[in-house]
Specification:
- Pfam families: PD40 (PF07676).
- InterPro entries: 6-blade_b-propeller_TolB-like, WD40.
- This is PD40 domain-containing protein.
- With about 650 residues, this protein is mainly beta.
- Helix content is about 5%, strand content about 30%.
- Strands 1, 2, 3, 5, 7, 8, 10 and 11 form an eight-stranded mixed beta sheet that branches. Strands 34, 35, 36, 37 and 38 form a five-stranded antiparallel beta sheet that branches.
């Protein structure tokens, strides 16, 4: 008998909390505690002829956690492998006669719903995991008062079946076994058969059960994730924050909280006084950030750029260990003032346009009743695309009670400290831009009408591109396959190799874009082509939930792409948010900014794989079980964030 301690038993956590509020990545290198890793991808296993987009070389697979980039994992055993133990695993509570209560392995009737992982059957893929991912967790929805569960795993190259008994409907594989079959190569690139059965230990009868498969990819995933976590639709210093973790971490850390943000002198929309002097300061000092909203990593990974609360100014803040909240040394007072203008949209940066003397941010710039600058009035219209030099030495003076001199100074430095990109052929609003990693192209949402940096309601939205062209812009072009009349296509994001664009799609143009229940995640080649609907949109059928209808949104790619794998495939990883049912799901009380549907969301990971012939396969979603179910988690970013390592599990 093998007994696993309490640290491996995960119960269902029921919670109450929230999310929807103020409302969007890059790469250094950070090594979390727990191993130095083997050879990096640039040093050996990348393979000839592959497309490896790995800026730092990675940490390596065996013995550590890849951080800078993905690496190939080689199988360490072909047959008669002993990674699965010969003896059953008991959770410390399950009765010793559990095997007798279940009987022969095929003794069950259908009826148990396996929610995690999303398993494949009838020729459909099950979930695909990076080899170094958070250890696999199994969660079922009991059907007939079951209180004892058997988890049985079988792989073709393993001598034994893994068999475990638990009194909880949630059970995670012991970490040492997960590492053995994953990052150490024990059972990679093959289907692993899962059968889970449940009985009532006091009245066993015939078990209920279900079966299916999942797979561990022969590659790892690199980087770290930082996401927006909210507990209320009301804006206070404690209701929104950024939370982060590295791939494989079982705990998270608070990467940035509102009280930590040190940038000051944020003006009201009219520009005559500090924000909060005559309005509700939301519990923060006058002129300070009130809310951490849609965020992206700077290319160094040491900072984030995020959208603040009304009137939607932008802020750049450090998240580096020991410096969280500090104003970056390069972010000058003039640049801070320029980005404090009202009604800006989500920022975006590019690795190729980032370095001393050339740190540029792009953002939408909403129409207002003055040409540019601070004003009390904004309206619907066609937002423009603006660039900002974060290192500008321009002086933008401000005198309390006056906005005219400040606006005159902003006009005076237009074209040198900031300016607009030409977008020839675009007659609609430019919203939610994303900048390619090579710095050449901006992809964005073209909205029939935009509002203060956001997409307005009930309008046509399409995905288009425009060249950067050294701040000059150029002619816009619709992305074939993602600019379809009569449907909503929005929130685009370039993959790390710039070959794919992930975006949201809804089947009509009615209603609000933000947090649309019928939103789904698609990908399309960046040069246009047939759109691909991701299998990850769909919850397991046994849950009774279907998509459209579960608010799939905010897809963001992992920071590296790995090709040259011996099996001829190229692996992409993607993170997104979804309001599908989970333990602890809750309804958020609405306020004036809330969308019609305020179900809480959680984060999910999925894979898109390109084979040697250029065909794409997509896979079901993987629930990221280390996140807090008491917060609604949105707008994730998966980059190479330089955040502190989370603490070890308790």
């Amino acid at each position: 008998m093998r007994v696993i301690g309490a640290s491996f038993i995960l119960g269902i956590v029921m919670a109450v909390g929230m999310a929807v509020g103020c409302s969007a990545g890059g790469g250094g290198d950070k090594t979390p505690a727990g191993g130095t890793g083997g050879a990096g991808a640039s040093g050996g296993q990348g393979g000839a002829g592959g497309d490896i987009f790995n800026p730092t070389g990675g940490m390596g697979a065996a013995g550590g956690t890849p951080v800078g980039g993905d690496v190939i994992v080689n199988a360490n055993c072909k047959a008669n492998c002993d990674d699965f133990p010969a003896e059953p695993i008991f959770d410390g509570v399950a009765p010793s006669n559990a095997p007798e209560l279940f009987g022969a392995p095929d003794n069950y009737t259908p009826g148990l719903c396996i929610v995690e992982p999303h398993l494949g059957d009838s020729g459909k893929h099950g979930a695909l995991f990076p080899a170094n991912w958070l250890r696999v967790r199994f969660r079922v929805k009991p059907a007939n008062n079951e209180n004892l569960f058997e988890i049985r795993l079988k792989a073709a190259n393993q001598t034994n079946e893994l068999v475990a008994y638990s009194v909880s409907p949630v059970w995670a594989m012991p970490k040492e076994i997960w590492e053995a079959i994953g990052v150490k190569g024990g059972a990679i690139d093959q289907e692993i058969q899962v059968t889970i059965r449940g009985v009532n230990s006091q009245n066993p009868g015939t078990p209920t059960g279900a079966t299916g498969t999942f797979t561990i990819a022969p590659v790892t995933a690199g980087g770290s994730m930082v996401y927006w976590a909210a507990t209320s639709s009301e804006v206070t210093p404690t209701t929104s924050k950024l939370v982060g973790f590295y791939v494989g971490d079982e705990t998270t850390i608070d990467a940035l909280t509102v009280p930590q943000v040190q940038q000051g002198n944020i003006l009201s929309e009219g520009g005559r006084e500090l924000r909060g002097k005559y309005t509700d300061p939301k519990g923060v000092p006058q002129g300070r950030a009130q809310c951490i909203g849609c965020h992206v990593s700077t290319p160094s990974g040491e900072e984030v750029g995020f959208t603040d609360h009304w009137p939607w100014n932008n802020v750049v803040s450090t998240i580096k260990e020991g410096k969280a909240g500090e104003v970056p040394t390069y972010f000058t007072a003039g640049a801070q003032r320029l980005l404090s203008q009202p009604w800006l949209g989500m920022m975006t940066f590019s690795k190729a346009i980032w370095g001393p003397g050339n740190r540029i941010a792009l953002t939408p710039y909403a129409n207002r009743n003055v040409d540019i600058g601070f004003t009390d009035s904004t309206g619907y219209g066609s937002d423009r695309l603006a660039w900002f030099d974060l290192e500008t030495n321009a002086s933008i003076p401000w005198t309390e009670g006056q906005s005219g001199p400040t606006n005159d100074a902003i006009k005076g430095v237009q074209g040198t400290a900031w300016g607009f990109l030409q977008t020839s052929g675009e007659s609609q609003g430019i919203v939610a831009p994303n900048w390619s990693h090579d710095g050449q192209t901006i992809v964005y949402t073209s909205a029939g009408k935009s509002q203060d940096g956001r997409i307005a309601d009930n309008v046509e939205t399409d995905i288009k591109t425009v060249p950067y062209n050294n701040r000059q812009g150029g002619a816009v072009a619709p992305v074939q396959g993602a600019a379809t009349p009569g449907v909503s296509e929005y929130y685009p994001s370039f993959s790390a190799d710039d070959k794919l664009i992930a975006y949201n799609r809804a089947g009509n143009t009615s209603g609000k874009i933000y947090y649309r229940p019928d939103g789904e995640v698609y990908v399309v080649p960046s040069n246009g082509g047939s759109p691909i609907r991701l299998a990850a949109n769909d919850p397991p059928a046994c849950t009774g939930q279907t998509s459209p209808g579960v608010i799939n949104s905010w897809a963001k790619w992992s920071p590296t792409v790995l090709g040259g794998v011996p099996n001829g495939k190229t692996y992409y990883w993607l993170i997104f948010s979804s309001a599908r049912d989970y333990p602890g799901a809750f309804i958020v009380p609405p306020n004036q900014y809330s969308p019609p549907d305020t179900r809480s969301s959680q984060l999910y990971m999925t894979a898109i794989v390109r084979d040697a012939q250029g065909n794409y396969e997509t896979y079901p979603a993987v629930y990221i079980w280390n996140q807090d179910p008491k917060t609604s988690n949105l707008t994730p970013a998966w980059d190479i964030f330089d955040i502190p390592p989370p603490p070890p599990p308790k």
